[in-house]
Amino acid sequence: MYKILLVEDDKALSNGIALALQTNSVEIIQCYDIKSSKTKLSYNTFDLMIFDINLPDGNGMDLLCEVKKVSDTPVIMLTANDMEVDIVAGLEMGADDYITKPFSLAILRARVNTQLRKRSNANAKENTFIQDAFQFDFDKMEFHKNATAIELSKTEQKLLRILVENKGVTLDRSTLIDRIWTDGAEYVDENALSVSIKRLRNKLEDIPSKPQYIKTVYGIGYAWVVT
Length: 227
Prior knowledge:
By secondary structure, the protein is of the alpha/beta class. Helices cover 42% and strands 24% of the residues.
């Protein structure tokens, strides 16, 4: 299931876009301003984002810059301004595509599908994670710190992969639980996540009580720190 964040203040247009893009494999999360979109970004991870530029509480370009500082999630910009200088500026700020209004929903859908395919292909290739002293190979399930092998349980492997694939993004506890324990169990004690986090820190962090990489965001969840 792909999850797309749509930030467009024109509710009629937003609903039309959502209707055109929503399928059994695509979920659309709609926001109408920057404030609400930041809330959604704090509690969710997305495969694609679509931002209007002129929003009631700010500029979509600023939101684009904030997102690109911490994530490589593709972003498509929507704007009524088709001036070349604005299009170039948006692309240089990190936008992956740029569509001017009015536009065909069929063309937007095609552009969206192109970005989702690119992301899917990139994710398939990016199964080795390297940062500082760490090297994690998720294809071979081999994990090293300073060239020393680290043994991780299946649960710890899942948890680590979710964290590093969303580095810099705070993942709430319920999302982590849902994505790690996917065996259909009706109830998973939240303490199981706390225990798994603690065990992973003990294996990865130099000082587990003062973690540098697996950050606790109190009241929300956890994030892998971008260094």
